[in-house]
Amino acid sequence: MSQKARQKASGMSRELTSLYLENQAIPVPLDLFQAKPKFGSKAERWVWRGFKSSARPDNLVLHHWAKANEHYDDYFYARYNARATPCHYSDEEYD
């Protein structure tokens, strides 16, 4: 190795220079290019849509974002609105 090659590069520490000169064959990644992703379809259209829930007795109109091609007659989670009848115990049964 010539004296020019052994000269310390500016900004490099002595340890780094010695490591670099020992390993002249540094592997270079072959595929540096990352292709732009190609999406198969157009983006879905979303609209701000009002809805009513059959679980509410006051017919309140609430809003949410929904896909433009989806239409629901009733709010999706209204089917989970199950009303339970509370149990009533007399004082004798409770003790």
UniProtKB/TrEMBL annotation:
Q: Which GO terms describe its molecular function?
A: methyltransferase activity; transcription corepressor activity
GO-annotated biological processes: chromatin remodeling; DNA repair; methylation; negative regulation of transcription by RNA polymerase II
For this protein, the record's InterPro entries field holds: Swc4/Dmap1 (IPR027109)
Q: Secretion signal: which residues?
A: none
Keywords, sorted A to Z:
Methyltransferase, Transferase
**Is Zinc found in the keyword set?**
no
Q: Per the record, GO CC terms?
A: NuA4 histone acetyltransferase complex; Swr1 complex
Per its record, how is this protein called by name? Answer: DNA methyltransferase 1-associated protein 1
Task: State the species of origin.
Answer: Coemansia thaxteri
What gene is this protein a product of?
DMAP1
